[in-house]
Amino acid sequence: MELSFIGAVPTNGQEISAHKLSSETLSKELDALKLGHSDEVLQKEEKKEEINSLNTTEYEPASPNQALNNLSAFSVNFIPPGVGKPKHTVGAASRGKCPQDAAAVTTPVTPLIPNTSYGFTVAERPTFFVYLPETSATRAFFSLRDANEDYYYQTIFPIASNPGIISFKLPEDAPALEIGKTYNWSLVTICGQALRPGDPKVEGEIERIELDPAQMSKLESMSAFERATWYGLEGIWYDTLTAIATLKQSNPKNANIASTWEELLRSVGLEAISIQPLVQ
Asked: Got the DSSP string for 57-81?
């Protein structure tokens, strides 16, 4: 099983110009003040206006080079949907590293998922991200279980020995996630010749949601970076992360993309691994 990123370098894009808040947004701000949460509401409304402005009849697609140069005008803010805390911590009975690995390892195996939000995706076969420290292990076990704890998919795949963030995308021969259902995923580093209790393990929860036709149409007209921004506003974590990771992988020397990636991870409590490389 190969580790991979799915996506392409954005083929269009445009620098978002400064804009004034509409009367409707100001009205919503006043309402939010009464409820005591104006900052969050206003932030989401402002970002939605930015995305909507990219889909007007005056929008002129930029060249690929212009799109990359204009990335400094964009930002990706993940707004948690606020539907509860998922089970995504390091397994209580597992170690953070293999026993034969260096004692100097300070950052354990870590799933790339915020600890304050539920993990949504719109993809049939999403991509999962996990940080692995330097290890002598050469394989990992990935599994996906449904609400009944039945295995929905499982596989063993090779991993690199150097530290970094790996990705695992559900392959085409895996069953598609069903809309509206929650799944538990886990990744175990196989320290020895076979999988054993106590091997480093991390878990997460994911639910596939459905977009309406208007949302799908809007996404199709966006560049990869614009989609990442939109996913973040809607609280769709897995696709936000995948979109930025794809850009980072395709443009490893672009400082704006690297900064956006690091800021996204820091914003959800993943400071310890925010500067770790993406590895294949």
From this structure: TT--PPPHHHHHHGGGG--------
202 and 249 in a single domain? The answer is no
Q: Longest Cα pair distance anywhere in the chain, in angstroms?
A: 65
**CA 183 distance to own-chain centroid:** 16
The pLDDT of residue 1 is: 42
Radius of gyration of the chain (CA): 20
Using CB atoms within 10 A of its CB, is residue 177 exposed (0-12), middle (13-18) or buried (19+)?
Answer: buried
Question: Under a CB-based contact definition with an 8 Å cutoff, are residues 37 and 86 in contact?
Answer: no
Q: Tell me: the pLDDT tens digits for 204-235?
A: 999 999 999 999 999 999 988 899 999 999 99
Cα 170 to Cα 144: distance, rounded to the nearest angstrom: 10
The pair of three-digit structure tokens given for residue 239, joined into one six-digit string: 């696709």
Beta bridge partners of 206: 183
The residue out of 207, 237, 255 marking a domain boundary is: 207
Q: What's the helix, strand, coil split of the chain in %, to 5?
A: 30, 20, 50
* SS3 state at 50: helix
Q: How far apart are the first and last CA of the chain?
A: 11
Residue 179 is classified by DSSP as B
Question: 53 or 264: which carries more pLDDT confidence?
Answer: 264
Domain that holds residue 65: 23-78+209-273
220 CB-side CA count, 13 A: 7
Q: Express each pLDDT in 103-146 by its tens digit.
A: 766 789 999 998 755 799 999 999 999 999 999 999 999 999 99
Q: What per-residue confidence (pLDDT) applies to 114? A: 82
Distance CA 280, CA 2 (A): 8
Shared domain for 121 and 197, answered yes or no, is yes
Domain count, the chain: 2
Last residue of a domain, one of 207, 231, 265: 207
Quote the tokens at residue 17: 């110009």
